[in-house]
Design brief:
Layout (H helix, E strand, L loop, with lengths): L7 H13 L5 H8 L14 H14 L1
Helix pairs in contact: 1-2
């Protein structure tokens, strides 16, 4: 379950920028859009596949 609207990733990035006053990173937008259902644990993503995808991205960046 992802939390992007019909305008997708770019739209979410623009909404976050308007709300926060700064442009969020790719990872920040990705994490926000794929958070799990528990608001107390925002680092837990919606499913294992998404968690693995984020881990692979982080490995490539490092």
């Amino acid at each position: 379950m992802q939390r992007f609207r019909a305008d997708g990733f770019i739209g979410k990035e623009q909404r976050m920028e308007a709300e926060l006053g700064i442009r969020p990173s790719f990872v920040e937008v990705f994490i926000w859009g794929h958070q799990g259902l528990d608001p107390e644990n925002p680092e837990v993503l919606c499913n294992e596949q998404v968690t693995e995808r984020l881990a692979k991205y982080k490995e490539q960046v490092i």
